[in-house]
From TrEMBL:
SUPFAM superfamilies: GST C-terminal domain-like, Thioredoxin-like. Transmembrane segments: none annotated. The keyword Transmembrane does not apply. GO terms for molecular function: glutathione binding; glutathione transferase activity. This is glutathione transferase. Its EC number is 2.5.1.18. Belongs to the GST superfamily. Pfam families: GST_C, GST_N_2. GO terms for cellular component: cytoplasm.
Length: 240
C-alpha cells in the first residue's frame, strides 16, 4: 500500500524507540505503510543506555526498544518486540481491504501458512546471520571501537549466502516474501537487508535476480525512501 493512497489514521499510541536502530525501523516502515499517525514518539538513546533507566525498565522490564503503550485499551496495552508490534499495528490499524492489508487473508489458510513461513525464515535464518554480520562488520568497529572477528564473519557470510539463495528461489514464483502482495513479513527483512546492500555486503544480491527484483520493489516504495533518507541506522544493541 503506497503512502500516497492511504488516509491518515489517528492513534492513542506512545512509541518508545531509537529510530536509528534496525528493529525500530521495522515499526517505522509499518507505520508509514498503514498511514498511522503517532503523535507521542519518545526517543530513547540506546548509546547513552537510556533504555536501562528505571522509568523505562518499569514500563518494559526487558529493557529494549521499541515498545508501545496504546491507550485505546483499558487497561492500556503495553507491547514489546518489533515483529509482534508490527503485526498488532497491521491488525488494529491497517486496511480492512484484504488486498491492501499487510497481513494475509484470514480466510485463506494457504496465505496464512506462507506468511508464517516467511516470517519464520526471516527470524530464524536470515536475521540469525545478517544481524550478527552487520554488527561485526559495521556497528562493532564504528560504535563500540571493537575489533571485527574475521573468522566469525566468514562463517556468517557463508550461512547468509545459503539463506539468500533459498530466498532467491522462493521469489522466483512470487513478488513478495509471503506471496504476491506486500506484508509485514517483507518489512521484517528490510533494515538488515539495507545495511547489507549499502555497506556490509553490496554484492550479495548481484547473482540473485529474483531477490534483486524484490529489493527494487521495496526500495522504490515511499515508506523505504522516507525512513532511510531520514535516518542512517546506527546500532543493533538492545534491539529485539
Amino acid at each position: 500500500m503506497d503512502l500516497k493512497t492511504v488516509s491518515t489514521k489517528m492513534s492513542q499510541i506512545t512509541l518508545f524507540t531509537d529510530s536509528r536502530l534496525p528493529c525500530p525501523q521495522r515499526l517505522l516502515l509499518t507505520i508509514h505503510e498503514i498511514g498511522l499517525q503517532i503523535n507521542d514518539i519518545r526517543e530513547v538513546d540506546i548509546s547513552k543506555f537510556e533504555h536501562k533507566q528505571p522509568d523505562i525498565l518499569e514500563l518494559n522490564p526487558f529493557g529494549a526498544v521499541p515498545f508501545i503503550r496504546d491507550e485505546a485499551h483499558n487497561p492500556p496495552l503495553m507491547l514489546a518486540e518489533s515483529r509482534a508490534i508490527a503485526r498488532y499495528l497491521a491488525h488494529a490499524y491497517g486496511s480492512n481491504d484484504v488486498s491492501a492489508s499487510l497481513l494475509p487473508d484470514p480466510n485463506d489458510v494457504v496465505a496464512i501458512a506462507k506468511f508464517e513461513e516467511a516470517a519464520s525464515i526471516e527470524l530464524t535464518s536470515f536475521d540469525a546471520a545478517a544481524n550478527q554480520l552487520v554488527f561485526e562488520e559495521l556497528f562493532k568497529p564504528n560504535w563500540f571501537h571493537g575489533e571485527t572477528d574475521a573468522e566469525k564473519c566468514k562463517i556468517l557470510r557463508e550461512r547468509l549466502e545459503q539463506v539468500v539463495d533459498l530466498l532467491d528461489k522462493r521469489l522466483e514464483s512470487q513478488k513478495f516474501m509471503a506471496g504476491d502482495k506486500l506484508t509485514v513479513a517483507d518489512l521484517f527483512f528490510v533494515p538488515y537487508m539495507h545495511h547489507l546492500d549499502q555497506s556490509v555486503y553490496p554484492t550479495l544480491m548481484h547473482s540473485r535476480p529474483h531477490l534483486s527484483a524484490w529489493w527494487k520493489r521495496i526500495t522504490t516504495r515511499e515508506s523505504y525512501k522516507s525512513i532511510f533518507a531520514l535516518h542512517q541506522l546506527a546500532a543493533t544493541m538492545s534491539c529485539r
